[in-house]
């Protein structure tokens, strides 16, 4: 029966694909009782390592019938990389004017304003207005969303481990240019208000720092403020080169 399925599969391929596209016979796979797949090498340009797979139904006392003919990649075939969803390929800074990126319906970073609010105290603006008829923000950062943002900011260029922070004379938490935040992250972050600093207008960790700290003072030279009286040497003789 294997010879019959081989010949039937080859004849079906010859009738279905371009001439010269079918190469050597590669073998047979018994997929299930009454179902086999005959494999043939593909010789099409650009399809090195691919093969033709011909699926046949084989029943007792009956001629094999063709189910399908497909071109499949083998172990050495060059194939496209695994598909990555568009949303997962977007990186910070990729969005341009007019682009939109709506959050997922079950985005764990967001919670209803009436449930969380920007803080946990009574009278918080978001939570207060969310109880009214649609006033205020409908969604706010959840606890997970806040911690995710905090971890990202701490590990970024304006966290305590940034190279500029390690060489800084002071920390942002004691800097006069720091603008305080409100809410749950106020004990860890603020906004830099120093126009001469690299982080101006950006959220910085209180443990971040730079050379533009408000407490920075210029170093005074330890050298003498006045020059000593000149000394007139009338004993030694200077060697002068003759030209």
TrEMBL record:
It comes from the Bacteria. Residues 212-243 are annotated as: Disordered. This is DUF3027 domain-containing protein.
């Amino acid at each position: 029966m294997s010879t019959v399925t081989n010949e039937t599969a080859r004849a079906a391929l010859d009738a279905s694909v371009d001439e010269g596209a079918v190469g050597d016979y590669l073998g047979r796979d018994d997929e299930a009782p009454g179902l086999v797949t005959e494999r043939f090498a593909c010789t099409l340009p650009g399809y090195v390592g691919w093969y033709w797979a011909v699926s046949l139904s084989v029943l007792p006392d009956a001629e094999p019938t063709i189910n399908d003919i497909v071109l499949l990649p083998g172990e050495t075939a060059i194939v496209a990389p695994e598909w990555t969803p568009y949303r997962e390929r977007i990186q910070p800074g990729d969005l341009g004017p007019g682009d939109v990126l709506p959050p997922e319906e079950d985005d764990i970073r967001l919670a209803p304003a009436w449930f969380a609010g920007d803080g946990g105290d009574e009278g918080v603006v978001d939570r207060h207005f969310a109880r009214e008829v649609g006033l205020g923000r409908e969604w706010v950062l959840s606890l997970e969303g806040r911690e995710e943002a905090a971890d990202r900011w701490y590990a970024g260029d304006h966290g305590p481990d940034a190279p500029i922070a390690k060489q800084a004379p002071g920390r942002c938490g004691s800097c006069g240019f720091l603008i305080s935040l409100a809410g749950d992250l106020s004990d860890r972050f603020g906004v830099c208000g120093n126009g001469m600093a690299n982080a101006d207008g950006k959220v910085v960790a209180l443990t971040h720092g730079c050379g533009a700290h408000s407490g920075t003072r210029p170093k005074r030279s330890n050298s003498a403020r006045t020059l000593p009286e000149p000394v007139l040497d009338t004993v030694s003789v200077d060697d002068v080169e003759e030209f």
